[in-house]
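Reviewers of the previous submission asked for a worked example of the structure-prediction workflow described in the proposal, so we include one complete record here. The input consisted solely of the amino acid sequence. No template or homolog information was supplied to the procedure at any stage.
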Amino acid sequence: MTDTESPRAASPIVQARNVCRSLGGREILRGVSLEVQAGEVVVLVGPSGAGKTTLLRTMNGLETIDDGELIVAGQPVGYRIGRDGRRSPASRTALMRQRQEIGFVFQHFNLFPHMTAIENIWHAPVRVRGVDKREALAQAEALLARVGLADKADARPNKLSGGQQQRVAIARALAMKPQLMLFDEPTSALDPEMIGEVLDVMKELAADHMTMVVVTHEMGFAREVADRVVVMDAGAIIEVAPPARLFASPQHPRTQTFLSKIL
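From that input alone, the workflow returned the following structure tokens.
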């Protein structure tokens, strides 16, 4: 079977075409075009201020694009196109419905502090998707076991380490059974000894063919797990390549400079 005939090639989860985003008169994203196929792991790297997090946030509708086209799981994100061809903001209901298909893991966990670990996980499926509580609870228990925290079900976030909190956050996102998982520097707020436990969970997700877009400075993770590494600089994509090729022979001068500073 050729690449063009494969299921992966036939079903892009993310389609960004000439995406632009400005804030305060400054261009944050400048004509970004990118496709992410089903089951693919794409890692976004680049210097601070390159636009990586902004691009990730547009994929979940946390920020709206000013121009271009952004389709996730078959639907425009944050806007709709009317019969007259004009663009208008998506309704809050439409955006919330779409976010059910997109898991987002933040840098700083964002767990509900008044809930236990297991409550943080089963709450959204029950409230948002209408899942039966017993079913959601069983799923939450399975997810806690999957991220290695079966014994922490009744612990509140302030009793968990940073790495444990982030693993609960991943389980919470997975509980919604999303088509796409977005990770915004998920290990940058962690102590060094806790980074590995979070990356191990992410590696398992990749092995299970979860579609993932990851912003990270963990080049070892990018080298080992990514199908493609996307390098951004000054709001634009400057280079895209499989990790083996990118790290061995970066083509763009800015990529060469960036990698020389962090490797």
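The CA atoms of residues 35 and 169 lie 26 Å apart. We consider this example representative of the routine output the project will generate in years two and three.
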